[in-house]
Amino acid sequence: MVKTDLDILDDMIMGSAKVDIEHKSGSNKASVTLKEPQFPKSEVTIYGLPHNAIVIKVDTFKSPDTILTEKRGQRKRSDYIIVANKNDKKNILHIEIKATKGSEKDIIKQLKGSVCFVGYCKEIAKEFWHEKKFLSEFESRFVSITRTGSINKRQTRLGKEHNPNDTPEHMMKLSYPHKPQFNMLVGA
Fold it and tell me: Rounded to whole angstroms, how far apart are CA atoms 68 and 145?
């Protein structure tokens, strides 16, 4: 049996670093609730995930404090990534969650750190699974979800410039999230 990139990633990542997806019975759609690590009451639920999605708490990956300096933010990483193949569209969604607004410069560094984490996973697949093209067909998308502590108080606001959200510097900015859809976040 040939393993897909998602199968390999699922084997590679420990269960404790993954977030359980809630499957809606009788449907091919699912949702996931993501929490801001420093503020457990601050959370957002993303709807419309495919069942085969893998959600990884990137912050679980221990910071390389003992080997890297923090001069340019290279020890930072975002809170989550969602890796999914939906309707033959393959995406890696990098997500940073903030209970308040947060600094854009810091959020960019955190999103870049999650790109490095994915690069590390690619190298592991290349060297240990002999998969030279691991995740090469997946497109990265970047989202900053802020003001998650006020979910019910305001309508979801989308930053003015969010397309394309294919680099950390051009991330989609979502404030006061209310039922964000996976397709919207990846620009589908």
Answer: 27
Q: Decide: helix, strand or coil at residue 115.
A: helix
Count other Cβ atoms within 10 Å, centred on residue 5.
Answer: 22
Distance CA 76, CA 111 (A): 8
Please say whether the beta carbons of 101 and 158 come within 8 A.
Answer: no
Query: Domain ranges in the chain?
Result: 5-186
- CA dist 148 and 177 (Å) reads 7
Please say whether the beta carbons of 81 and 114 come within 8 A. yes
CA–centroid distance for 43 within its chain: 14
Contacts of 110 (CB under 8 A, 6+ apart): 73, 76, 77, 78, 79, 96
How far apart, in whole angstroms, are the C-alpha atoms of residue 118 and residue 94? 10
pLDDT in tens, 13-24: 999 999 999 987
* Dihedral angle, C-alpha 155, 140, 165, 71, nearest 10 °: 100
β pairing state of 139-146 and 172-175: parallel
Which tens digit of pLDDT belongs to each residue from 44-84?
999 999 888 999 999 887 777 777 778 887 878 889 999 99
Question: What span, in angstroms and rounded, lies between the C-alpha atoms of 162 and 144?
Answer: 10
